[in-house]
What we know:
By secondary structure, the protein is α+β, with helices and mostly antiparallel strands.
Amino acid sequence: xxxxxxxxxxTLQNIQESGxxxxxxxxxxxxxxxxxxLIATTVLVRFIYYRTYHKTEQFFTFFSFNITIFLITNxxxxxxxxxxxxxxxxxxxxxxRYRTESISTRDMTYLxxxxxxxxxxxxxxxxxxxxxxxxxxxxxxxxxxxxxWLVKKExxxxxxxxxxxxxxxxxxxxxxxxLQNRTGLKVQRVEIESxxxxxxxxxxxxxxxD
Length: 210
C-alpha cells in the first residue's frame, strides 16, 4: 500500500513537472497573440454578431473553432509550416460548409471569420501592433457591412399563406398590403415557393426592412 502511495506521488510530480516544462516552452509572444485572438473573437461574436442577431446557440461553436485553429496553426507554425499549408488548413475547415445543413449561410460566414482570426493571429509574422491593426480592420469592415450605413438590411421569413387568390401577379400590391396588415412588417416583395391548390395555401418568402 505504501509503495502504491509513493508511486502515485511520483506520477503526480512527473505530471506537474511536465506541465511546468510545457509552460516554459510557451513564450510570452504566444500568450500575447492568444489574448489578441480572444479579444478580437469576443468583439466579433459578442458585440457584432449578437448585437445584430441576438442568438447565442453558436457561441460555443465560434469560440471552439477559433481556439482550435489558433492552437493547431501555432503548433504547425513552430515546425516551419508554410503559408500555403496554413491556408490549406483553412480550406479544410471551410469544406465543412458543404457537410453542414443545420447552420445558416450568415452563421457560416461568421464561422469563417473566427477561423480567419485564429489563423491570422497564429501565422502573422508582424508584431502585436500589426496583428491588432489587422484584426481591427477585419472587425471594422464586418461592423460596417452589418450596419445600415451602406444599404438597408433586408430580412426574410418563410410563411404559409392561405389567400392564394392574391398571388396573381396583377394583385401583387393587394397581396403586399394584406401581408403588411397581418404581420406588421414593411413587406417589400415576396417570392412564391410552392402552391397547394388542394389546401388553398401557398408557401412564400416575404422580404422586409427594419
